[in-house]
């Protein structure tokens, strides 16, 4: 079991705060908000799916920028700028009553999310590795789990007294102090640039090799597999269940509660089983969650999907990032950015394909088969991934 030293705690909390801002108050709060925005007449379901795709396109762009700006000095410049622009676009969303304007803001918001979501954990992981505490890196993602719970409460508590674009105000107001405090802590980290040891050749700069390609392909399946329930589960509950059912809004609360313990759980599972074996178990549980929504339509399927996907998707992220760094420890931030970029391509494809399926007369429920197939693909490729090397 990972023991957190006192000097690590402020850094882990700062990383958690930053991820809470960009990934839950920025991205995932859209999931419980979407049914209300549709009910308010601000969006149609199809427009909601399209806007989700614009956000994921921005996320991809941000991750690609993180590949380009992967050096520690570059991260120190880009990270605060990305956080500031993210908070600004979240504030502007409170005034966006036009779907096209909201789509543009979600695009920029997603770009900042992708950049920060790569750079903040990568910076912290490099610092933790210097402290011989890399095994604690997964605890940074507790911010996402806690943020899901906070976002669920925000949407539920404000549902009756906010309307339309004003529903973004709680997220905007909380983002500002958390982003400011989180960056102040991270700015103090003494993480120098990597340098090749004297007398040794510089290690290869290739991202794709025999050890990393299977991991990249598996991670692409994870990105497409989890994004459908994480985007559309409350909407699916609204379509399948009676009006006023607790699960219309409560399904996101269940996801949040399950996610809250996930970083600690999978951080410990990786330490005990090895990151590769823990990831294989993770993929199977996540697949079971999506299949539950498909094969058990109604309340039972919604509940199982929320609990199983909610308790696993962050584990996929933290274990894959750590396993990737162990395979190529000389370019940790760069391989992290490349994996997130591929992950975001798959996330972008999921809502877009769902939108196309809905345009052809398909149902939101049947679109979840895409997610199940993607997770099965991911598990199959995980069987070919080598175990981690010593960093």
Number of domains: 1
User: Terminal Cα separation, in Å?
Assistant: 19 Å
Mean pLDDT over all positions: 86
Number of helices in the DSSP assignment? 14
Just give the CATH class. Answer: Mainly Alpha
Order of helices and strands: HHHHHHHHHHHHHH
Shape: globular
Structural features:
transmembrane, globular, single chain, 14 helices, 391 residues, Growth Hormone, Chain: A, MFS_trans_sf, MFS_4, transmembrane helix, mainly alpha
Write a concise synopsis of the structure shown:
The chain is mostly helical. It is built from 14 helices and no strands.
Structural account:
The protein has 391 residues and is mostly helical. The protein has a single domain, classed as Growth Hormone, Chain: A, CATH 1.20.1250.20. It is built from 14 helices and no strands. It has helices at residues 9-28, 30-39, 45-68, 72-93, 99-130, 142-158, 169-186, 213-240, 246-273, 275-295, 299-310, 313-327, 332-359, 364-382. Helix 6 (142-158) runs antiparallel to helix 9, helix 9 (246-273) runs antiparallel to helix 10 and helix 12 packs antiparallel against helix 13 (332-359). It is globular and about 55 Å long. The two termini are 19 Å apart. Keywords: Membrane, Transmembrane, Transmembrane helix. The chain crosses the membrane at residues 51-67, 140-159, 216-237, 243-266, 301-323, 335-354, 366-385. Pfam families: MFS_4 (PF06779).
């Amino acid at each position: 079991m990972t023991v957190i030293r006192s000097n690590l705690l402020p850094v882990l909390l700062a990383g958690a705060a930053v991820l809470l801002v960009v990934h839950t108050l920025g991205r995932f709060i859209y999931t419980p908000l979407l049914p209300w925005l549709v009910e308010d007449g601000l969006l149609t379901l199809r427009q909601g799916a399209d806007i989700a795709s614009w956000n994921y396109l921005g996320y991809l762009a941000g991750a690609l920028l993180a590949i380009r700006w992967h050096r520690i000095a570059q991260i120190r410049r880009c990270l605060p700028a990305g956080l500031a622009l993210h908070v600004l676009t979240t504030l502007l969303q409170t005034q966006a009553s036009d779907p096209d304007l909201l789509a543009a803001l979600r695009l920029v918001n997603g770009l900042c999310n992708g950049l920060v979501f790569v750079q903040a954990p990568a910076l912290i992981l490099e610092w933790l590795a210097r402290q011989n505490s890399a095994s604690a890196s997964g605890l940074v993602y507790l911010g996402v789990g806690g943020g899901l719970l906070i976002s669920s409460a925000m949407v539920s508590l404000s549902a009756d007294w906010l309307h339309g674009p004003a529903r973004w105000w709680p997220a905007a107001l909380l983002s500002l102090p958390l982003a400011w405090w989180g960056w102040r802590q991270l700015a103090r980290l003494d993480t120098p640039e990597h340098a090749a040891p004297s007398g040794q050749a510089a290690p290869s700069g290739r991202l794709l090799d025999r050890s990393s390609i299977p991991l990249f392909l598996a991670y692409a399946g994870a990105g497409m597999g989890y994004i459908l329930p994480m985007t559309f589960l409350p909407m699916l509950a609204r379509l399948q269940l009676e009006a006023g059912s607790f699960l219309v809004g409560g399904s996101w609360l269940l996801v949040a509660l399950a996610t809250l313990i996930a970083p600690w759980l999978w951080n410990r599972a990786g330490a005990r089983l090895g990151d590769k074996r823990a990831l294989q178990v993770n993929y199977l549980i996540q697949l079971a969650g999506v299949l539950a929504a498909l094969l058990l339509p109604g309340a039972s399927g919604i509940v199982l999907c929320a609990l199983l996907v909610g308790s696993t998707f962050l584990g996929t992220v933290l274990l894959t990032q750590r396993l990737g760094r162990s395979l190529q420890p000389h370019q940790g931030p760069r391989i992290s950015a490349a994996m997130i970029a591929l992950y975001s391509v798959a996330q972008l494809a999921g809502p877009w394909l769902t939108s196309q399926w809905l345009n052809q007369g398909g149902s939101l429920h049947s679109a979840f088969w895409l997610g199940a197939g993607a997770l099965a693909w991911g598990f199959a490729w995980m069987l070919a991934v080598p175990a981690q090397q010593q960093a």
